Amino acid sequence: MKRRYLLGAASASWLSGLRGGVAQASFPTQPIRFVVPFTPGGSNDVVARLIGEQLSPRWGQPFVVENRPGASGNIGAEAVARATPDGHTWLLGANQIFTTNPHLVRAAFDPLRDFSFVAMVARVPVVLVVHAALGARDVRELVALARQRPGSLTYPSTGVGSSQHLGVARLVGENATHVPYRGANALMPDLIAGRLQIYTGAVNSLLAHIRSGSVRALASMGTDRVPALPDVPTIGEAGFPDAQTQIWLSIAVPAAVPRPIVDQIHTNVAEVMQMSSTRLKLDEQGIEVAIQGPTELEATVRAEYARDGALIAKLGIRE
After folding, report:
1. CATH number of the 126-243 domain
2. pLDDT of residue 47
3. Measured between alpha carbons, how far apart are the two ends of the chain, in Å?
4. Which of 5, 94, 239, 243 has the highest count of CB atoms within 10 angstroms of its CB?
5. Is 260 within 8 Å of 24 (Cβ atoms)?
6. CA atoms 277, 278, 279, 284: torsion sign
7. Is the dihedral of CA 6, 7, 10, 16 positive or negative?
8. CA separation for the pair 155, 157 (Å, rounded)
9. What is the rounded average pLDDT of the residues 292-297?
10. Residue 91, helix vs strand vs coil
11. Across the beta sheet with 3-7, what order do the strands follow?
């Protein structure tokens, strides 16, 4: 299902005091179409709306946030890759679109060729959880249980090759059964009900369920502990440093967008993301501000593309 959200622009009189030195006279000249290639309510959606709400009055143009889920994010990504390269169509993409999907999904675009990478904007801490009824109190017990009962444990994801899929697969390989869903909101009821046993997901979507006792947190999948879960070890502390999994969110535009526009978007988005009010709102959602510019982000994409490709080949994962 596709949804659009219009984030209104301020009046011209009020705006005149905000635009000085911020936007070039030639850009933007029309509303910004901000494509989120996942279902509404997730981390991508939250960040896209926040950016749109902040930039709309600065630029004097509305932002239309358009949810276009499907094909592990590729449907929305393709819409942006094929858009007019004038800087008015953006993708708020998770790293899987650029670094894992190309190894798994045949697409009508090449993420390394058909996009200009504008800015990394955020990271979403990932937590490994199990259903409360599962007899695994730490990561080692979980891995051992999966080996003892190969195929009997199940874990969901938002698609083949997603961070949720690879996060568990790095730990248990083929000893547990992967069950793909169309989105995080769709899988959560089955996880809470115990029809699924293992999950690696964004902390902002899991924290309430961890606190209620429906699921048990075993590890933070990043290099640092999650501030909201200070007693939960990192996956490295739990003895599995090679299983680190991260979700990062970035803005990309069609490859032929002129570099001055790419640089302007990065500069203005970075300013918005570094505002204390932005950080506070994202902290409440369990999302961390993380800024990279076009050159650094492209290097990050290419390095992770190679790492994920090697893992997918090793595990024999297929779409």
Report:
1. 3.40.190.10
2. 95
3. 22
4. 94
5. yes
6. positive
7. negative
8. 7
9. 97
10. strand
11. 3-7, 63-67, 32-36, 89-94, 247-254, 115-124, 288-292
Q: How many CB atoms lie within 10 A of CB 17?
A: 7
Instruction: Report residue 116: phi and psi, to 5°.
Output: -105, 125
Q: How confident is the model at residue 25 (pLDDT cuts 50, 70, 90)?
A: low
43-59 helix and 276-284 helix, angle to the nearest 10 degrees: 160
Is there a contact between 42 and 155 (Cβ–Cβ < 8 Å)? no
Fill in the amino acid letter for 42.
G
Contact 69, 37 (CB under 8 A): yes
Q: Do domains 3-123+247-315 and 126-243 have the same CATH topology?
A: yes
Burial class (CB in 10 A: 0-12, 13-18, 19+), 18: middle
Residue 199 — φ and ψ, nearest 5°? -160, 140
For 3-123+247-315, which CATH class? alpha beta
**Confidence (pLDDT) at 88:** 98
Q: Which residue do the tokens 């003892």 mark?
A: 148
pLDDT digits (tens, 9 = 90+) for 46-105: 999 999 999 999 999 999 999 999 888 899 999 999 999 999 999 999 998 999 999 988
Burial class from Cβ neighbours inside 10 Å (0-12, 13-18, 19+) for residue 108 reads: exposed
Handedness of CA 177, 182, 187, 190 (dihedral sign): negative
Compute φ and ψ for 304, nearest 5 degrees.
Answer: -70, -35
Q: Where are the domains of the chain?
A: 3-123+247-315, 126-243
